């Protein structure tokens, strides 16, 4: 492995400067501001502020609405992760079996990833719209009265489908790459030994996919907790009755709509700590079961 040596010690820092500046301006500085504001109580215009210590955090832990948003976030994140990864793995296995049309099939499945989250939310909102949508009409034929404006379950199903559909393409690409990296000789040897398709998948294919699965597990949890804001905002707006008001959407609603800046900042700090803790747990304990 070649090692690059810079004669000018300032040059490496100059090359890193654009990335360091972006990281500081868009990540470190906002995070620091959120932590500072979480200990303050400010008016709606941000003119007057007073130090309140941990009162914002105590108020959140005593709030039934905030505890509900945490519960909703857990249900939503687990559902989106399971659905998006499960469907993506199923489609990837199907592509791995198709030799001639696999490229066309892959291209068609990748397209949804290019759709913006807000557009994906509006698309599925129209499909499941109780008045003009096609899915409520089909469900009504089989005897199910769909209305995500009234039913908490229907609303959760809608946002899970819209969010998972957007992420399936991303997971699919990595699963296809992981399947193609598995030597065909291993599966052929198992087939010669008499192992069926299901046995070969769970005993050989899936264990060898564990590094890809672990990586996608981390990515999908972070996606469900942060990047699904636009989907929630364009479909249910956190309703009905706070049924889809996940933590990241509550940060926006309390901060920008309710103008409760201190509480909103405290919520963002808690959300950041939860995601960091989940990531550490996954890399510390879950990764030990990954076979590289």
Automatic annotation (TrEMBL):
Annotated PROSITE patterns: ABC_TM1
Single GO BP term: transmembrane transport
GO cellular component: plasma membrane
Protein's name according to its UniProt entry: sn-glycerol-3-phosphate transport system permease protein UgpA
Organism: Paracoccus saliphilus
Gene3D superfamilies found in the cross-reference section: MetI-like
Pfam family, any one: BPD_transp_1
Main location: membrane
Key words of the record: Cell inner membrane, Cell membrane, Membrane, Transmembrane, Transmembrane helix, Transport
């Amino acid at each position: 492995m070649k090692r690059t040596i810079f004669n000018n010690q300032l040059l490496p820092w100059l090359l890193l400067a654009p990335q360091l500046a972006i990281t500081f301006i868009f990540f470190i500085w906002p995070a620091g501001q959120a932590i500072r504001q979480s200990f303050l109580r400010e008016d709606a215009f941000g003119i007057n502020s007073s130090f309140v210590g941990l009162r914002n955090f105590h108020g959140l832990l005593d709030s039934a609405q905030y505890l509900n948003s945490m519960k909703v976030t857990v249900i939503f994140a687990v559902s989106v992760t399971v659905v998006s990864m499960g469907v993506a793995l199923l489609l990837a296995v199907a592509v791995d079996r198709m030799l001639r049309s696999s490229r066309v099939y892959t291209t068609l499945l990748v397209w949804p990833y290019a759709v913006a989250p807000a557009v994906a939310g509006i698309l599925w909102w129209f499909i499941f719209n109780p008045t003009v949508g096609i899915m409520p009409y089909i469900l009504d034929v089989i005897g199910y009265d769909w209305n995500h404006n009234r039913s908490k379950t229907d609303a959760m199903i809608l946002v899970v489908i819209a969010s998972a559909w957007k992420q399936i393409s991303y997971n699919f690409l990595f699963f296809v790459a992981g399947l193609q990296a598995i030597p065909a000789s291993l599966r052929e040897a198992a087939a010669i030994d008499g192992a069926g398709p299901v046995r070969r998948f769970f005993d050989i294919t899936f264990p060898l996919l564990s590094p890809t699965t672990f990586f996608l597990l981390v990515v999908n949890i972070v996606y469900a907790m942060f990047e699904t804001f636009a989907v929630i905002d364009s479909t249910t707006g956190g309703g009905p009755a706070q049924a889809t008001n996940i933590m990241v959407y509550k940060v926006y609603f309390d901060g920008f709509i309710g103008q409760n800046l201190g509480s909103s900042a405290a919520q963002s700090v808690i959300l950041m700590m939860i995601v960091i803790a989940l990531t550490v747990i996954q890399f510390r304990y879950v990764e030990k079961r990954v076979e590289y």
